[in-house]
Amino acid sequence: MSKELIRLRNICMAFDDELVLNNINLYINDKEFLTLLGPSGCGKTTTLRMIGGFTTPTSGDVLFDGVRINDVPPHQRQINTVFQKYALFPHLNVFENIAFGLRMQRRPDPSDPRKKLKIPEEEIRERVMEMLEIISLKGFENRRPDALSGGQQQRVAIARALVNKPKVLLLDEPLGALDLKLRKDMQIELKRIQQQVGITFIYVTHDQEEALTMSDTIVVMDKGSIQQIGTPEDIYNEPKNAFVADFIGESNIIDGIMVQDKLVQMYGRKFPCLDGGFAPNEPVDVVIRPEDIDIVPVEQGQLTGTVTSVTFKGMQYDIIVDFKGFKWLIQTTDHSPEGARIGIKIDPDGIHVMKKSQYSGMFGDYSSFSDEYDELDDAGLEPDEEESGDEE
Fold first, then answer.
1. Which helix (H) or strand (E) holds 392?
2. Domain containing 198: what range?
3. Which of 105, 201, 243, 258 could share a disulfide with 359, CB 3.0–4.6 Å?
């Protein structure tokens, strides 16, 4: 069983009477890769800064290994931070950038604890070379930062933080300045480094793909509150509310009625599902992921609609389909032209039912998802055809 390392207990934070963190409760295990995920202004960076000691909570406790550390300054915590701006010293080579923190350290003299000694040069070299091996930059020790790529600079910044052997590494959107391909490569590299050094990583991002790719645990935040905590699989497959369903991946979120356990109604039609525990005829939000929808001939469909937009994405088509004025996104390898009438089928395990929340009705309609998708209505249908075709 994993050991708890950090706990945030009843944390509130206010700036100029504006509450930016509202009663945050969270624990983080030793050797865990945990990601704080959410939109700008949700409180994730404030939470990270609180753990690092750069911000003191208005109320509540920050515990490290069971000890309250609210008033412990950053340099006295066993925590280091890597920011989006790597802040490498341009006049120092890679070796000296990584060694900088070690050269600043002083240790008690075993013969006289009142005296402080520098770390021996031999130990510094050994530890720096070990870090160069871990970050796959052995042989780059004499290069200056301006001779490195963005990804290499980022790895040097990580090595500089890790060489001091912290128990926790905080990473505040460190991949934000990299291009898409390099960012994807570095996601895998970061996870490898975390597993190799065997310490806790706490990572802040607004990028859901980064969170899903690297994390053991994802904490989804919005408006200063935690919306859901879970593994990437749990967060994606079992979102707690419409905000989480929309923020993690792409989702069609439809108003429904839970007729009874394992049976939900949408558009007047009843669909078998795997969910239960709702009141009879309780209004609910229904999440259907775009990849869980099968296109079938109209006569075989549980619902029928009109294709309003088709976008080729290489491995798949993103197809927008109008059902009674509400746009669904379907991701499929099968091409359906604009204007086509299609049927759809959804297996029971492709339907996820959620309680209504403050986010209900705010997400899931792809008429306004992106400029990439045309805002088209199912206007080509005659009124009687629409009534009969798009399922009451």
1. none
2. 4-234
3. 243
Collapsing DSSP states into helix, strand and coil, what is residue 349?
helix
Q: Which helix (H) or strand (E) holds 300?
A: none
Question: Residue 107: what pLDDT?
Answer: 82
pLDDT reported for residue 389: 45
Task: Write a three-state SS string for 185-243.
Answer: HHHHHHHHHHHHHCCEEEEEECCHHHHHHHCCEEEEEECCEEEEEECHHHHHHCCCCHH
At which of 189, 207, 234 does a domain end?
A: 234
Interstrand relation of 217-222 and 200-205 (parallel, antiparallel or unpaired): unpaired
Give the domain-ending residue among 234, 258, 286.
Answer: 234
Tell me, what's the pLDDT at 202? 98
Confirm if 228 and 240 have CB atoms less than 8 A apart. Answer: yes
Q: What's the Cα-to-Cα distance from 313 to each of 27, 319, 332, 336, rounded to whole Å?
A: 39, 10, 10, 14
> What stretches of 114-179 show up as alpha helix (H) in DSSP?
121-134, 150-162
pLDDT at 357 over 80: yes
**Which of 44-58, 215-229, 350-364, 369-383 has the lowest average pLDDT?**
369-383
The whole-chain average pLDDT of the chain stands at 91
